[in-house]
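MODEL INPUT / OUTPUT PAIR
PAIR INDEX: 1
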Amino acid sequence: MRSCVLLAALAAVPSLAFTPPSFENLLKLFNRDSTKEHGLLHDFKKPLFIRRNETIPSNLGNVTQSQYIAAQAIVDEALDRVEEINRARFASPSRNHYAPRERGQQRGQRGKTAFTAQSQNELQADHFKMTKELKDAVALVSRIDALNDNQTPGVSGNKTFGPVEKRAAGTFWMETIARKGAWPWGKNPNHKVFRNVKDYGAKGDGVTVSRLERASSRLPQIKGLTAANTQDDTDAITKAIAEKDECSGGCYGSTTMGAIIYFPAGTYLIQNTIEISYGMQVIGDANNPPTLKSTKSFFGTGVLSTDAYWGDGEKGEDGRDHEYYINTANFHRQIRNFVIDTTQTTRPKAMAALHYQVAQATSLQNIVFKLSSDAGTEQIAIYAENGSGGFMSDLSFIAGKIGIWGGNQQFTAQRLSFINVRTAVEMIWDWGWMWKSITIENSHIGFNLTSGSGDGHVGSITVVDSVFRNVDIAVLVANANSSDTGRTSISMDNVLLDGVTTWLREQSGKNAPKDNAVPGNHKAIDMLTVGRSYVDSKLDDEKGIKEFASSRVDDLVTWNNPDGLPKLPYGERPKPQYEDRSASDFVHVKDSCKGDGVTDDTACFQKVLNDNINGKIVFVDAGTYILTDTVDVPLGSHIVGENWAQLAAYGPKFQDPKQPRVMLRIGRPGDVGLLDMQDLVFTSKGPTPGAVFVEWNVRNYKKQAGSAGMWDCHVRVGGAIGTGLTSLECPPSRSGINPNCQGGSMMMHITRQGGAYLENVWLWTADHDLDDPATVDNMNKMVQTSVYNARGFLIESINPTWLYGTASEHSVFYQYQFYKAANLVAGIIQTEQAYYQPTPKPPEPFKDAVGSFNGDPTFPCTDTEPCDEGWALRVIESSNIHIIGAGLYSWFDTYTQDCVPESNCQKVMTEFKNNHGGITINNLITIGATNMINADGKLIPSKDNLAVNAHPFWSDIVSYSPSGSARPGPAQPVTTPPDAELGDIVDRINSNLHEDCMVFPECVDMDNPVVSSCAAGYTRVGYDRGDCVSDL
């Protein structure tokens, strides 16, 4: 019920930002004299309304009931508007629906957004803006509410607020470590990379009163409210984000404005949405994660947001409601170590803890979402409308209506728990999403895949190593079979259902739901698929539900299985944060090196690494470190980058594509043990056509996934200020080749002796500029580039390797190639083809460098091995590889997109050739290719597997196994045969050595010292004839 007659009139006027009446004007509407000296009366003779009886605390000076009533009316009207905006936004989420543009209408932007969005009741006035007057009213109401309700966290009774005490140092090293970082390629030499919110006035004591000092200066009747006894955490946090320069409204992206926004332990009350700018890492104390607590009356859609809307009635670059950032280019963000608590918020009812829109190189980690447990709550933890990739891990969701209400092209989620959440996950839309190590307890629905609108545009999910306990419906799906409105494919691998009534409910149109019940409410799923599956080039099952046994490579799984899953889970390790270490355990690279983007830091960087392998942690201060030759990262290294510090290849040693040279070599062949790296960017300065940006040689300890690993590290070739490979030097070319735009030979290589653990690693050759040239241009136009990199990600490892949340984009030969590789799990992987192809056709401009690496494709220009585009994925002569989801996209034919609706941007997307066994790919999604797969010379057409009859017409296969990889059976227990049989077994192995060594076509007899020995100065590290490596 509205508080006064004024509000009905206000509601009838459409507005982009609610502008509340002033105190003085509101009083005039009540026919009261407002000409007193200070413009306000002490009280009303006869109040027309009272929202509720409130006692004005004595320590608020001369605040009167009349003033409170006036303030409350303003607040109530604003909250009504917030509720209206939030409900409208939730009713019409952005789904990345596309319609093809007319020929010649291409604009400078990312391929996935180069379509005009179909109208779906587009919401224009959807971004609530706090005005100065409203903040003053909120200040007064919040203060009185907090003191009268006597329920502010950390406060007992009517506490008298004294001056802000000097903050005590926390125990987390990040709070006290010295700060020396800077962005030398930026325009502001004084840019502040690290910002502690308490240095900007945030108190974190659980008490927030917004703008009371400024309110008292304009409303002198409110006495006793001074800077000494008021604090506004919301404004202080916003000030920390917006210091001097930031990439926010009017800036689509920047590589020179990044910063760390740090929160010490405490409780920070938040009254309105905090918008997080591009390139920012928002990090809390890892030892005592701070709480961000929304106030009783909250103004905004999410407590935190990376998805701001202008609300100006315009359309953005992606054709949808005008947002600050382009949803498929909202890169480089990080939020970790928080509790986000909305339990005390009563208005608006519809709200989220996090309004989240992201693309690659983004992550959420170590966050607890605490929502209202009321039966009718409408609170959502994460509301993620659209985007193009991302990574989330180690999240807990407690109570609320929905845990994650999300849509994204492809995403990786690991180690999530949902407790007492009505619906754990509701998908708005997606093409592919991997959910690993998920626990859902006491929910009505685990995964709702009906997409809200019922359009069925949820492509696929893969649920791995997960548990559902006391759940009514594990998976709710709109269409498991039809491509007319959208088919949804489902893979469940190693899943336990305990206390589950229905594992799958199919809810299609007007037909009655079809339930797949769980007998006895308990079910252990080894492997189950819903959708189209293939073995070799033959359709194994068109649309049905298939359940079967499968096995896993022993070295890829963990020792522990606390949930009693059917199989041991695949190994994982959360990103290390060194919570038990102090700032004195870190060594600053800038104590020895410049990092100024000009000075050659090769020798000093190498020395810092060599000198600090005995327990010290190398801290790479923000900056750009020029490397003119190979730098070796020794075994035992621990490296932490500050806000994605940059290592840049430069100079003559990286110029020859026929003799590639490594910029950063991780370990030496034969190394086994500890090594970890995080928060770094590997890039270049100027053309470096012979650069291999990262070579990985270290193996993990047995069954210790992540003992040698890399988290939140990315390769970036061109597209950024300082690289000399931007649209200024390398504009999009539709004919010819600019030799000065050859950026690299390979982005990453895991060698045969290596074995890596990767989480959230993005390998990107620039298709556009990352830096907005005019940060006040709110139309967010991006300019494309033609930058050439020969190879994406080459994996030759035969040792256990885990690739979680990786992507590789825009290379000439291939994006991923598994060559004679084995013992690997990857998910979800994502690719895009180079926008300029087939002009030139691959392997140009690196034709003369073909053969510089094992397995280089030759592009013979046949129907099955065409030469129009590079390969998205090649799996050659490999075994025991499990790819848990892949989104592979081809959006362009020489910068035009007419090819997308017809799926003829390229002829064949992937190649599987001469493989041996144990290879499976679940939930393969392709867009833009005529054929999804070349299976040993046999093609699998995309049109046969069309998943949706709407643009962009993606195709989907729920399970594919190439020739020789018939679905493996369950793993058998290892037994020791009697001695009498042992000799027969050895003889049989020796007589079938070639077949038994499927992966190793040139196995050596290790019992024969003549053939198994290596030359002097070399050590054997494997079983192939060539597996001898130098001791140097």
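PAIR INDEX: 2
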Amino acid sequence: MASSISSSHDEETPDIESTKSVVSSITDHIHQLISSPSSWNSLKSASTSRLSNIVQQNQEKHFDFSEHSVISNLYWGIEAIDSAMQAQEVEEKRTNGLKKAESMLQVPALLEEDGVTAGIHNQYLICCSYFFLSVVKKLQNDEWQVALHFFQAVMVSPRLVRVEFAPRVCEELFHESCNDEDVRRMARRQLLSWRNDPLETYCNKLVQYEKVHPFDSQSCEIEEVEDCQPQKLDVKKDTFRKDKSTRSLQEVLMESESDTETTSVSSCCNYHVEEGGDHPEETINEGSMRYIKGSEDNQFSLVNPCEYKSLPLLVNEEKPKITSGRIVCSVGHRDRKTDSLLSCYAEDDHHGRITMEDLRRGMMGKNEKDKKKTHKKKKKNLLTGRDFSSQLAMHNNEQGSETELVLLLEKAISRLCFSEEEEDYDYAIQVTTIYEMLSKKRGVKYNMLKNVILDQLLVAISTSKEERVIRASVSILSTIVLVNNSAVEEIKRKGLSLYNLATALKQKVHEAAILIYLINPSPTEIKTLELLPALVEVVCTCSKPMLTTTMRSCQLVLTPPAASLMIMEVLVTAFDCDTNNMHLEAINSPQVLGRLVEVAKMGSFDEHVVSLARILVKCMQFGGDCRRYISESVPLDAFACLLQRKEKRAKLSALEFFQEILCIPRSSATSLLQGKNKGIFGSSNLMQILLDCIQEIETDHKLLAASLLLQLDTLEDSSNKSMFTEEALKVILNGLSNEQSSTSQQLAAFILANIGGTYAWNGEPYTSAWLVKKGGLTSLTHRNLVKNFNQLDQTLQDIGIDPWCAKITKRVVDMGKPVFQALATGLRSKIKRVRLNSLTAISWIGCEIGKYPNSIRYSACEILLSGLEQFLHPGMELEHRFLACMCIYNYASGKGMQKLINFSEGVRESLRRLSSVTWMAEELHRVADYYLPNRSRISCVHTQVLEAKHSRSGAVTALIYYKGLLFSGYSDGSIKVWEIKDQTASLAFEMKEHRKAVTCFSLLEHGESLLSGSADKTIRVWQMVQRKLECIEVISVNESIRKLETYGHMVFAITHSHGIKVFDSSRTANDICKSKKVKTMTTSIQGKIYLGCKDASIQEFSITSNREREIKAPVKNWMMQSKPINSIVVYKDWLYTAGSLVEGSKVKEWRTNCRPQVSMVAEKGKSVVAMEVVEDFIYLNCSSSTSSLQIWLRGTQQKVGRISAGSKITSLLCANDIVLCGTEKGLIKGWIPL
């Protein structure tokens, strides 16, 4: 039976026997509690159910997340104890469970007693926490801490402990007559009495009775001081207990580098507790940070770290209410994270303490004069970085005095927290060295010390307004993070604000880029910070790799420019196309691109060329100017070196870079490959490296390596077969034949299609356009049916394409049948893009196939011919029909012509329809008829393949193809642009610059421009600029425009009054045919313009000689004078007119008083409003049925069908065997003959 605590002897220090009796009584009770399942379950259930009930009663109220977190920590802390008790057989699980429970119970134990959390009084939560912490310590066999936590619970809520938690032991310890205040006072004084007993004496005595934990042989000598004064210790040696959870700061700092972890019992013996206002010192609480305020001059005393008194990181003189006087710091580690600041000994013989004003000046730097004095005084005593590093190294390597090591660490932390010196270099060394040493240790207290350093730096970054302070803090924190990767997660947990780092970066604290990169925020977070201008500035302003002082001291690789590049990579690659392009616009300037190119030349950036490569790839994809500048100035060796790296990402990025940079006009690409003849890029070793990449890389990037290898080897001009070419082509052909992988097949087809051709400066493939030009597609109308085809583009004038094509064709053809078999597989692919790219590859090979033996050409013809037929039919784009016709002509020449007898009637019909486009189609059709004479059967069935609607703009009044896009003019003055893909029309863009209806379109060969005439009395000249239509000129006319035609640089316009005006290149207007009222007109390639007049006459005007003549006289019958010629068309060498009659003759045979060779009456008594003529058909829109088209055979003049548009037809166009109608309801429909 333990003796009770006597109130009459509160001031006396109890002897060892009485102390042991009290501790034993408490531990016995806790032992009985946890040994009895029923008692434990009853207490646990009562506590947890009470928590649940109180929360449920207040569930309608809204609490902060932090309040719920406190309740959850208490609840699950109790549950963790129960789980640990049930894991008796698994020691590790039991130990971890107790540690988890202890850390969770510490959260509610740190609450202020006079508050309320989630509707529960804090006193109840705190008392529960301390009591269950005593249970944890009992399970950990730490009887001393059991007693300490028990008395803490009693001081907070005596009644709760006496009634619910431990009634029996309270009866033993306290008299029954004592009220709660008496019990609280007794418990407090019991703790004070233990504090007053010297630590060494008590511990030695306690060991004599019961040795729970082993002790080291060292001892601790503590000076006797007055109770009212803080202690200043001369630490010589200490006594440690091996309990990780109770080690003090003094123990952590004095612990040696040995593997034995030791802990002092001083943490649980030396308390400094005041009662009310009786003591001259006050305990001031603020959250989890506490400090001792002395009675004299607002001074902060330097006290013994073993007393668990801590200075705040930021001084605050507000005094919260003092309640029970409990010793908060005994709870564990959460209040100890600032204890290292207590070790800041200012070794001054006169003062021995740091004042509050010193702290203010040290942390905030407000008084410049005092700063200089403090700086001068501290500089004498605090260690420099080099001195500290050398002394620390000595202690690590030699068995020096541990006390001296403690002082070194203390002074280093003091230097970090309070010094005002400008030498960031020394700070970085000190902090990094300390942090590295602490990182090698395990235990909560070591983590606490690291947290002190991190907290101090984070506070400076987030609160300081001085650039020097922010720069130094960011620099030091960057160094710590680079050296200790685990610090990143700790910084994230502490909630370092990305906004603060972004602000620092924008204030030219470039080291902040390193922290932002290492914290690894999400792309969305990076975008929100709007960092790109600051990142660009970091890269552009450094004349060489920017190594901060901390980085130089640690010899680190990552630099602010390198980190900036990696963040920039995220901004230009991680988002959708529009967002990426928005970011790329900030980079797309000569200054920035020039700096990026300079970065590539810096050897120290080798580790980060990967990010640079990806950025440059995106820049090249963004615009042709970027691609041109980069290709002309970037050093290829820097990126070729990436191919030698072991990292897969480095190799892939390098291959993507070379693929993109070679997507330029062929002569420039060849010069780029040939001009870099120094370094690794110009060596044969590079081809071996690429060969190794082909064999090592499993992804589709091996195709990129094969493409680069093939181009490099082609430049060698070797007449013999090359191993590199053979391996490269095998990879490409295997990819093309691999129908199981669509991505591989598409990439292989793209590479093969353009490796023998060229690109535009914007990176678009121009091989098809070059082949179309090479094949002789000269008509302005036909050229504008081809997308992205500009006859005036200098890329198509490149004289280097043909020699390159010849070289690469030789390499390909030397492979033999496997090449053509792979291409035939590509023609049969289900993927349209693969089929079209295969067609392009066959086309450029076919341009050179005639130079090789007939056996090779005949073999290729047999393999490829059947697959080429599919591209000839109407419905396919004109360039593909043209290329297919060119391929058949090239491969079937000679002996292969006999294969034409196998052509179906449909193929022959398609060739006949193409004869107006290219002479090759006409020749093939003639040869096919020669080998197998057969009267062609014309299919008159028309199938609708296209429909586009935009009803809000009124009637479709004009249609034309320009740059491969369908342009439509509307009655409200708008122009809409449609992209036709797979017989589907999608609106690409629209504009509205005409004020009234757009009445007509025409193509101007000079400048490859588009003309639009309008009822607003203007003619606008348009050009396509970066896939956008821009008006470059406006021609004003006195009248509204009915119809436009052009020849060369001249523009012909029919006005509202039926006059005709001619505008020359200077836009001077002249009138012609003044005596005639002109209704319609058309031009011919012979330089003549034919005019259909209201009196049914036809006038011929020679543009070159400026002469006019009448080729058809007016109608003399008075009944026919009201029937003007409404439409006139030139097709091949025939001229067709339409009014009340449809008449046609060869142009040369039109003479005055000569009868036409063709004459048709569409409908008796009715006139033709509009007409279009193609190879097989004449389409008529008559006044009797304005919503339909009549189909007539051109050869036999027979009416064979009708097409209904659904509403009145207001415009008509035939292009690429498709007949298009625009209606008054804004609908566009298209049909093709099958």
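PAIR 2 NOTE: The chain has a mean pLDDT of 75.
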